[in-house]
Amino acid sequence: MTDELSANWMAYFAILGWPLVALILYQMRPFAEATAWTVLGALLFLPSHVAIKFPLIPAIDKNSVASVSILIGSILFAPRPSRTAKGGGLVAVLAIIYVVSPIITSVLNGDAILAGERVIPAVGYYDGVSAMLSQAILLVPFFVGRRFIVHEADVRTVLRVLVVAGAIYSLPMLFEIRMSPQLSQSIYGTFSSSFPVEMRYGGFRPVVFMINGLAAAFFLSTAVLAALAFWRTGSKIAGYPASGFSAYLSIVLVLCKSAGALMYAIAIGAVVRFFSPSLQKRVAVFLACLSLAYPLLRMNDLFPTNKILEVVSSVNDDRAGSLRVRFDQEQELLAHASERFWFGWGRYGRNRMYDESGSDISITDGQWIVTFGQFGFFGFIAQFGLLAFPVFVALRGNKAIRAERDAVFLCCLSLVVAISIVEQLPNASIAAWNWLLAGALLGRSINAQVESASRSHPKSIGGVLRPKEIAGRSLMHDA
């Protein structure tokens, strides 16, 4: 992997200049659309694994600069509705735990670790505060989405941006499929993956400016799902039939040579296109529950790893061998994480495994095991719980929606959020875009209940449902 220091001036100029791009977007486009393009554009077009670090300030990278940009945009351009639902108490509790837990982790990890000749330093208050600020910044898109992307038209806009962005991004992806992943190196002087990793079936997986080919393919699979929702409702995208976007993006996705992303598009795409919203939201809830339960399933040897390996082995022995290594690594890292179960080992590589000589022997592909190892059970449940909670609220929110088209788009968003959480089990690709989608799902789900209550009891509650009761009773009712 190319070192961050090899990035050229263009990489740093692009990151530091992104807030200006965001301001132009907010001046030219409606708020929801500008927000979506600001966050998604940063993910797709800014360099990966490039960060600008100043003392006492969290690293400035594509995710943090997107968060800061939409925070500025919200302050200057956001609409000011007179009445809004502010959300449930559980969201606030999870957010506080997510932000504050690094401080507790630093208090509990004041000991240095000796691994052979390697000395891994203790976690000080400086690192705890730095991690706290970083995680607070990452939550900005979640709360912006929760606060301002609350109407059916807003959700439709976000999904339309996703499809259009997929169509635009397909062009450099097709270039790299043919010519090899080289755009990031050519433009920004850095490449976040490696050629051997991206070689597949005599060709290459496209990376463009994302962290690796898997992340690029997964993004495209979500664009396919969004296009299928527009196709189902008979809606056009930028004046063109959604069926054409669905077919074109699906073809490009096949060329990306990523089995996981293709599986998402086929299985979840069939659900979006052909099955009822009622079934769709239950599939989303199942996927969210699976993600939350995964660490406990692995700790108690309840996840069917052997069955999965048998199935994969029948298709491809090499892939089965790679998956077996991943499962073995997860088990060792989970055993290490269990030694400091509640708040983890902290950063600096303390969550990883080392041999007698001090060499790092860990493979941490999944975001879940990274979070669990660094910040423990509380860190995991706060991060994954915040991402999953909107899926549960949407289960109730969809019942309050009358229009079928609205229900289709909300269910599609719920499924996109759910598979984004599942994707964090084998890979680590969580970004500001994931937080924005989760916040938008929560905002629209609660607001749908507000609208339903306003229609049903306009006089008794004055058109405003008590939002804390909405979120709490929604989760209790549907759990």
**Total number of β-strand segments?**
8
Q: Helical content, roughly?
A: 55-70%
Strand content: under 5%
Main sheet attributes: strand count, strand direction, barrel closure? 2 strands, antiparallel
User: DSSP helix count?
Assistant: 19
Low-confidence stretches: 1-5, 460-479
The H-and-E topology, N to C, reads as HHEEHHEEHHHHHEEHEEHHHHHHHHH
Distance separating the two termini = 43 Å
Q: Determine the mean pLDDT.
A: 89
Principal-axes shape call: globular
Task: Indicate the radius of gyration in whole angstroms.
Answer: 22 Å
Q: For the largest beta sheet, what order do the strands appear in spatially?
A: 1-2
Structural class: mainly alpha
Verbal overview:
By secondary structure, the chain is mainly α. The chain contains 19 helices and 8 strands. The protein has helices at about 10-30, 30-45, 60-75, 90-110, 125-140, 140-150, 150-180, 185-190, 195-200, 215-235, 240-255, 260-275, 275-300, 305-315, 315-340, 365-395, 405-420, 430-455, 465-479; strands at about 50-55, 55-60, 115, 120, 200, 205, 235, 240. A two-stranded antiparallel ribbon has the order 1-2. It has a two-stranded antiparallel ribbon with strand order 3-4. A hairpin with a 2-residue loop joins β5 and β6 (about 205). It is globular and about 65 Å long.
